[in-house]
Specification:
The complex is a heterodimer. By secondary structure, chain A is an alpha+beta fold. Chain A folds into two domains: 3-317, 3-Layer(aba) Sandwich (Peroxisomal Thiolase, Chain A, domain 1), CATH 3.40.47.10; 335-346 and 382-467, no CATH class. Chain A has helices at 18-25, 45-59, 85-92, 109-119, 139-143, 190-206, 227-230, 232-235, 239-243, 248-251, 258-265, 311-317, 335-340, 342-347, 403-409; strands at 3-10, 14-17, 35-38, 69-73, 99-103, 124-130, 147-154, 159-167, 217-220, 271-278, 281-288, 293-294, 307-309, 349-353, 359-360, 376-380, 384-393, 412-420, 426-433, 444-455, 458-467. In chain A, the strands form four sheets. In chain A, strands 1, 4, 5, 6, 7, 8, 9, 10, 11 and 12 form a ten-stranded mixed beta sheet that branches. Chain B folds into two domains: 4-119 and 213-235, Thiolase/Chalcone synthase (Peroxisomal Thiolase, Chain A, domain 1, 3-Layer(aba) Sandwich), CATH 3.40.47; 127-211 and 239-386, Thiolase/Chalcone synthase (Peroxisomal Thiolase, Chain A, domain 1, 3-Layer(aba) Sandwich), CATH 3.40.47.10. In chain B, helix 6 (163-177) crosses helix 10. Chain B is globular, with a radius of gyration of 19 Å. By secondary structure, chain B is an alpha/beta fold. In chain B, a hairpin with a 4-residue loop joins strand 10 and strand 11. The chains are: A alpha+beta, B alpha/beta. Chains A and B meet through strand 17, helix 15, strand 18 and strand 19 of A and helix 4, helix 5 and strand 5 of B.
């Protein structure tokens, strides 16, 4: 039976504490929330999706190219038009014949994607990645977190999806986002909202063959830390069962990813009921069996070494008070030229000189060792490497097209990194190194995907390095 | 091939002149160069002009060469512009020398000009940054300061030198520049000032970085066949070397040495049949303090990793055995990109003709100029010898 073999999660390491919001606003509207996760200035739902998916794929048994479907769920895609699937496929190295679908428009989308996977055959990668925003003083914004969950679904997956259901109901005004707006909204009609939630969640669970009380854990859509518990009565389950399937108090509302974070949190439970909900609609999946969860680069789903932001830093990180690229123009790399180098920028595809074996990155021009012109066999670098030279670019030091990144995230490290070859050797490349710590020559690092910059409204994604935990 | 002589050289002050045009600056440099010649050539005697510029801050990407030569009345002269980033001026000098050596010209004007301080710092960063490796290196969010800082990080990691040694470059060069009326930042500074300045790109601080400047410089080169007509001085171009290297740092074998400098130095020394020990002084490309340390080693002034000892022992001070950057260097005299390389020749001319004022060394006869483009993508080196005993 179709089941889940592996989960990968990713939560950004920046966090905003409820007290920091309360200090700024005098009150905090994120009910039941202690911290919300905040994406770094160069992160978005695509980069978070990449992180979670990489964790799921690398911890699992399937090769990247084995996946036949890629289902992406989010309410906050980086672009309203132009789906995430193609660029995600490129960064992950999935096969280009893969079927992709983007589910959006409702926080239910994550569980909807899982239901879709349950109905499909062939290896499927489900990725829910979200970063809901609202008006600064709203419940939605102050509860809003960020993160991504990826699930490897196969025809005979170890944690079986034994049943699923969905139901829709038009309940206007509970949660919506006007066209062209970055801020989700709700009318905040307390009883109306709560009734919509409990009746949809209770109703969809009742459509399953198994009674909710028989599950070891229940992972519910958690727009805040209190609403899931309001459904305990409708579901007929103990609050402990709901608590076993949520981590909203530590990462905030993760929208389409929220119930799947609940599933990941309940990883060792013998059985889990997962219920997604959004704007009146619900979807549910019944799962039998525990599922391993990979959480790189953190030890747990919630990062242990979080960096707490004050409210001013938060506004900078989110780009609320930064002023964008200054006048004066930035270095121009055309989009077609970027497209040509995507295998390098997304997957570190290097060249090995067929004459002398020297590695080249990018695999263009004459071999730096023997001078043979462009005779390279393609090799994919593993992504680990050693810092050879580094500098920290602070305020005023960034070129115009990186001023916005500096304004959002503060000083960053520009370095030369000797990337390990696939079979020994190395090739040196320029790269940014993430993290707040001082980067020094000799540090070990590993590659991930981040936003490089945005030009002509086209987001350019590429590799950056982050410190590699000591083995 | 016949010998080439430097008969005159002059420059504008280097500094911030936001309301002056590049043509106007060039005219002043040209006039000063002419006036430095014992018997200046008439305009119609100048066979060719080769000028260096990065592109005048982007406002004149094409044909700025003819624009300046026509402006000064060199009507119909054969003029071409050389672009090799910060080494544009040094390579203009090299082309001028080659034109004379080849026999195609007897009198050639070399020059350079740049206007950089009339725009925002962001516009300047854009303009300067696109001379580096733009598709990969620049997209790590770095500028030239960052790339040289990366070199410094590797250098300080590999050798005994410290950031204080970087600051010693600033102290020395500002000390020299304070005596140069043409210097952009003509003030002296203490080691304490130069150590405690704010970071620009760690480990480089503000005193480890040269300014961007406005200015122009010009030099006149003539063949051995006609030198008698113009000058009693005999400043011979003893050696010329030029070389290039990968534009991006990561592509190079070493981050603590510039192979373009080593290769160009080898040619120049060989052509001049001299070695570094024979030099009386040198003008080296100290766009960032680390560049001066690396230059000492690449030019053979000391062993690799030992540049700091020259600084600590004062051996490159004006009273040392090999004074470096008596003009103040890029750090203090200033760095108007295209004019910098020719500007180094002006200092050498002044020193070899005894016209260096307060900076005058004691009868030097052999001087070297070292001009680097970008972070080492191109280097031009020249050695000049005064053949007249003073």
């Amino acid at each position: 039976m179709t089941g889940i073999d592996q989960i990968g999660t990713y939560v950004p390491r920046y966090a905003l504490a409820a007290e920091a919001v309360e200090e700024a606003w005098g009150q905090f509207h994120g009910a039941g929330i202690e911290h919300t996760a905040v994406p770094g200035g160069d992160e978005d739902t695509l980069t978070m999706a990449y992180e979670a998916a990489t964790n799921a794929i690398e911890a699992g048994d399937l090769d990247h190219t084995a996946f036949e479907s890629l289902l992406v769920a989010t309410t906050t895609p980086p672009l309203e038009e132009e789906p995430m699937g193609a660029r995600l496929r490129s960064t992950l190295g999935l096969d280009d014949s893969i079927r992709t679908r983007q589910l959006t428009g409702s926080t239910r989308a994550g569980v909807e994607a899982l239901v879709t996977a349950a109905e499909r055959s062939g290896p499927t990668l489900v990725v829910a990645s979200d970063s809901p925003r609202g008006a600064p003083d709203s419940d939605l914004e102050q509860a809003g977190g960020a993160g991504a969950v990826a699930l490897v679904v196969t025809d005979d997956g170890t944690a079986e999806m034994t049943d699923h259901a969905a139901r829709v109901d038009a309940v206007p005004g509970t949660r919506f986002r006007p066209a062209g707006s970055d801020e989700s909204d709700g009318l905040g009609i307390a009883t109306y909202d709560r009734n919509a939630y409990t009746s949809a969640v209770g109703g969809v669970a009742a459509d399953l063959d198994t009674d909710p009380s028989e599950f070891a854990a229940v992972a519910l859509q958690a727009p805040n830390g209190k609403l899931p518990y309001r459904a305990a009565g409708a579901l007929g389950v103990e609050t402990e069962t709901i608590a076993a399937g949520t981590n909203v108090s530590e990462i905030g509302d993760t929208g389409a990813a929220s119930p799947l974070f609940g599933l990941a949190t309940a990883q060792s439970a013998a059985s889990t009921l997962v219920v997604g909900y959004g704007s009146g609609d619900a979807a549910a999946v019944a799962i039998e069996g525990s599922i391993p969860v990979a959480t790189n680069p953190h030890d747990g789903i919630v990062p242990e070494d979080r960096r707490s932001l004050n409210y001013g830093e938060y506004l900078r990180m989110r780009g609320e008070i930064t002023t964008g690229e200054p006048e004066g123009g930035g270095a121009y790399v055309s989009v077609p030229s970027w497209k040509r180098t995507m295998p390098q920028r997304h997957r570190l595809v290097a060249g090995r000189c067929t004459e002398c074996g020297t590695l080249a990155f990018p695999p263009e021009g004459a071999c730096t060792d023997c001078g043979t012109f462009e005779s390279y066999e393609s090799v994919e670098l593993p992504g680990t490497g050693t810092v050879e030279a580094a500098t920290e670019i602070g305020a005023g030091g960034a070129p115009p097209e990186f001023v916005e990144q500096q304004a959002k995230s503060g000083a960053y490290t520009s370095a030369v990194v000797a990337l390990d070859g696939p079979d020994g050797g190395s090739v040196s490349i320029p790269a940014q190194v993430l993290g707040d710590g001082e980067t020094t020559v000799g540090d070990r690092v590993t590659a991930t995907i981040r936003r490089i910059y945005t030009q002509e409204d086209v987001i350019r994604y590429g590799f950056k390095m982050r410190p590699l935990a000591e083995d | 091939m016949r010998d080439v002589y430097l008969v005159g050289a002059g420059q504008t002050p280097f500094g911030s002149f936001p309301e002056r045009s590049y043509r106007d600056l060039f005219a002043e440099a040209y006039q000063n160069a002419r006036e430095s010649v014992d018997s200046p050539p008439d305009p119609e005697e100048i066979d060719e002009a080769v000028v260096g510029s990065l592109g005048v801050g982007g406002r004149q990407l094409g044909l700025s060469g003819p624009a300046v030569t026509e402006h000064v009345g060199l009507h119909n002269v054969t003029c071409s512009r050389i672009e090799n980033a910060c080494a544009a001026g040094g390579f203009a000098v090299r082309q001028a020398i080659q034109a004379v050596k080849s026999g195609m010209a007897d009198v050639v004007l070399a020059g350079g000009y740049e206007v950089m301080t009339d725009m925002s710092s962001d516009a300047t960063k854009y303009w300067l940054g696109v001379s580096g490796e733009t598709e990969w290196e620049r997209l790590t969010g770095t500028t030239f300061a960052g790339v040289y800082a990366q070199m410094a990080s590797a250098y300080l990691d590999q050798y005994e030198a410290t950031t204080e040694d970087l600051s010693r470059v600033a102290v020395k060069n500002h000390g020299n520049g304070a005596k140069n009326p043409k210097a952009h930042l003509g003030f002296s500074c203490s080691l304490e000032d130069a150590v405690n300045a704010p970071d620009v790109a760690a480990p480089l601080n503000l005193y480890h970085c040269c300014p961007t400047s406005d200015g122009a410089a010009a030099a006149l080169f003539v063949s051995e066949d006609v030198v008698d007509q113009y000058s009693d001085e005999r400043i011979r171009v003893a050696g010329s070397g030029g070389a290039s290297d990968h534009v991006g740092l990561a592509e190079r074998d070493s981050y603590t040495s510039l192979s373009a400098t080593k290769a160009a130095a080898e040619s120049a020394y060989e052509g001049a049949a001299v070695g570094p020990d024979d030099l009386d002084f040198a003008e080296v490309h100290d766009c960032f303090a680390i560049a001066e340390l690396v230059a000492y080693e690449d030019l053979g002034f000391c062993e690799e990793g030992q540049a700091h000892t020259l600084l600590r022992e004062g051996r490159t001070d004006p009273d040392g055995d090999l004074p470096v950057n008596t003009s103040g260097g890029l750090k203090s005299k200033g760095h108007p990109i295209g004019a910098t390389g020719t500007g180094q020749v002006v200092e050498v001319f002044d020193q070899l003709t005894g016209n260096a004022g307060e900076r005058q060394l004691d009868d030097p006869t052999l001087g070297l100029t070292h001009n680097v483009g970008g972070s080492g993508g191109a280097t031009a080196i020249h050695i000049f010898e005064q053949e007249v005993a003073r």
